Structure formats: C-alpha cells, structure tokens
C-alpha cells in the first residue's frame, strides 16, 4: 500500500473527485485542508511549487490536479 497525501480545499471540485475516486477504490489517504492549515499549505507549496489544489503526494511522486488515468497509474 502506498502512502498517499492529498492537499485540498473544501470548495475544490477536483479535490472532491480525487477523494471520491480513492474512497470508491478503497484507497487509504491522508487529507490536509490547506485553506485552514497554513503550515500544510507551505508544505504543499514546498513539495509542488504550486498554489493550486489538489496536490497529491504518492510516496514522493507529486501530482498537481486530478486526472483519473494518471492517478491510477501512479498508485499501481
């Protein structure tokens, strides 16, 4: 099982899609709300160089945004 962290905000449509995908495929993940947690927001920016969400960290591989096929490949 890979270690997956998603940096998201409550109003982000693609964040919701990513979380729904992971739940429907029984993929465990850790979620950080970067709208509320400034420390995790800085961590996300340091990892990705991006302000946009979602940022998904899969064992150190950083995905910016959510594209189902790219995500599915990364978690194999």
Task: Please give a structural write-up.
The chain has 76 residues and is of the alpha+beta class. Helices cover 39% and strands 22% of the residues. It has helices at residues 13-24, 38-48, 68-74, and strands at 4-8, 30-33, 55-58, 61-64. A four-stranded mixed beta sheet has the order 2-1-3-4, with helices on both faces. Strand 3 (55-58) and strand 4 form a beta hairpin. The longest helix has 12 residues, at 13-24.
List the main descriptive attributes of the protein structure presented here.
76 residues; alpha+beta; 22% strand; globular
Concise overview:
The chain is an alpha+beta fold and 76 residues long. The chain has helices at residues 13-24, 38-48, 68-74, and strands spanning 4-8, 30-33, 55-58, 61-64.
Strand order of the largest sheet: 2-1-3-4
Assembly status: single chain
Question: What share of the residues lie within helices?
Answer: 25-40%
The DSSP helix count reads 3
Number of strands: 4
Secondary structure category: alpha+beta
Our measurement of the CA-to-CA distance between the termini, rounded to an integer number of angstroms, reads 9 Å
What is the strand content? 15-25%
User: What Rg do the Cα atoms give?
Assistant: 11 Å
Report the sheet with the most strands, covering strand number, pairing sense and barrel closure: 4 strands, mixed
Order of helices and strands: EHEHEEH
Shape, principal axes of CA atoms: globular
Weakly predicted, low-confidence segments? none
């Amino acid at each position: 099982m890979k270690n997956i962290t998603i940096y998201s905000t409550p109003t982000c449509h693609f964040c919701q899609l990513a979380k729904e995908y992971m739940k429907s495929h029984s993929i465990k993940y850790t979620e950080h709300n970067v709208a509320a947690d400034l420390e995790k927001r800085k961590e996300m920016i340091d990892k990705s160089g991006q302000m946009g969400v979602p940022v998904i960290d899969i064992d150190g591989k950083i995905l910016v945004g959510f594209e189902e096929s790219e995500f599915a490949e990364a978690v194999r």
